[in-house]
């Protein structure tokens, strides 16, 4: 009977990053001499493979999180979970970084909370970050990093995207007090504090105005466009039925706020009165113009101007010499007086 060739010396095999010494069971791995394997050999191989797999799992640091995109309202508590699934290093190094505009900054380093979260966060063992009083500036990406020096895979990290919702403040509303019938009108509503960005609703007499007037019997005859993203309500041609009290509401996932109602009136335009008024003004201006022209023709606006060149000083008589005495009315001719 032909004897089987002797088994080779034990050869080290790398299984999932683990070094195992497999000798008599090499044929099960290579696929040779399968028929001659005993049940004991197969069981021994299985134990060795299971041992190697378990040995690998404790030589690698592995992280996971319960929520990759947590969200909360402003001033509430929020948890950024960082769970260590497997690790063999007793005291791993744990760090948290906040990433804003692709620039990381420490918020937990050397077992201390720092940076933006100082005095507002704690670490819950082993590596979960709990923000006790979240603010709008905390909206960002956060990275949990764990370094295990004695593990074969010594580093792992997870990134968590945090959103802090901010409730809208009272919006600024602009409603025209009066609009002529048939003219256009624009109502505006603005709010800039809410996060995520607010969307807007308009109400008339406490009833919500639909996006499309044709979907409501009450607004069917109105002609307007409503932009819920910018808060603008624009009437293309105002009707008498559009008069009423209007107010706007800004809302997002954190809540809503609204402005006080403002009244808008619609008045008729008196076309006949306007035409008569224009005619009266034209007639008055025409009469004034004719009067001015007649006055010029009659010479009422002509005048004689006397200038310094036209004025002549009276000349004294030659050879006359006037002598005033003490008595104003008594005077005598001197001998030089010539008749």
Automatic annotation (TrEMBL):
It is found in: Cell junction, Tight junction; Cell membrane. InterPro entries: Ig-like_dom (IPR007110), Ig-like_dom_sf (IPR036179), Ig-like_fold (IPR013783), Ig_sub (IPR003599), Ig_sub2 (IPR003598), JAM-C (IPR042974). The chain crosses the membrane at residues 271-296. GO terms for biological process: cell migration. GO terms for molecular function: cell-cell adhesion mediator activity; integrin binding; protein heterodimerization activity; protein homodimerization activity. Gene3D superfamilies: Immunoglobulins. It comes from the Eukaryota. The keyword Transmembrane applies. SUPFAM superfamilies: Immunoglobulin. Its main location: other. It holds the Pfam family Ig_3. It is a single-pass type I membrane protein. Keywords: Cell junction, Cell membrane, Disulfide bond, Immunoglobulin domain, Membrane, Signal, Tight junction, Transmembrane, Transmembrane helix. Residues 76-156, 168-265 form the Ig-like domain. GO terms for cellular component: bicellular tight junction; cell-cell contact zone; plasma membrane; protein complex involved in cell adhesion. Belongs to the immunoglobulin superfamily. PANTHER family: JUNCTIONAL ADHESION MOLECULE 3B, JUNCTIONAL ADHESION MOLECULE C. This is Junctional adhesion molecule 3B. It comes from Crenichthys baileyi. The lineage of its organism: Eukaryota, Metazoa, Chordata, Craniata, Vertebrata. The gene is JAM3B.
């Amino acid at each position: 009977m032909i004897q089987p060739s002797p088994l080779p010396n034990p050869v080290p095999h790398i299984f999932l990053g683990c070094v195992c010494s497999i000798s008599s069971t090499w044929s099960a791995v290579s696929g040779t001499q399968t028929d001659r394997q005993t049940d004991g050999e197969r069981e021994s191989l299985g134990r060795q493979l299971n041992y190697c797999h378990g040995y690998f799992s404790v030589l690698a640091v592995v992280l996971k999180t319960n929520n990759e995109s947590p969200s909360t309202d402003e001033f509430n508590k929020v948890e950024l979970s960082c769970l260590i699934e497997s690790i063999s290093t007793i005291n791993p190094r744990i760090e948290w970084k906040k990433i804003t505009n692709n620039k990381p900054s420490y918020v937990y380093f050397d077992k201390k909370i720092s940076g933006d979260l100082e005095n507002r966060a704690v670490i819950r063992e082993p590596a979960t970050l709990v923000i006790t009083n979240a603010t709008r500036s905390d909206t960002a990406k956060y990275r949990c990093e764990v370094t295990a020096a004695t593990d074969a895979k010594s580093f792992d990290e997870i990134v968590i995207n945090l959103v802090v919702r901010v409730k809208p403040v009272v919006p600024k509303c602009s409603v025209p007090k009066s609009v002529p019938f048939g003219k256009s009108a624009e109502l505006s509503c603005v709010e800039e504090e809410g996060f995520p960005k607010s969307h807007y609703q308009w109400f008339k007499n406490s009833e919500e105005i639909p996006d499309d007037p044709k979907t409501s019997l009450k607004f069917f005859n109105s002609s307007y466009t409503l932009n819920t993203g910018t808060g603008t309500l624009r009437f293309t041609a105002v009707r008498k039925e559009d008069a009423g009290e209007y107010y706007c509401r800004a809302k997002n996932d954190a809540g809503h706020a609204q402005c006080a109602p403002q009244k808008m009136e619609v008045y008729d335009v008196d076309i006949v009165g306007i035409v008569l008024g224009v005619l009266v003004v034209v007639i008055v201006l025409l009469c004034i113009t004719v009067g001015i022209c007649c006055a010029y023709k009659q010479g009422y606006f002509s005048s004689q101007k006397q200038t310094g060149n036209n004025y002549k000083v009276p000349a004294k008589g030659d050879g006359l010499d006037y002598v005033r005495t003490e008595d104003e009315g008594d005077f005598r001719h001197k001998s030089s007086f010539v008749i």
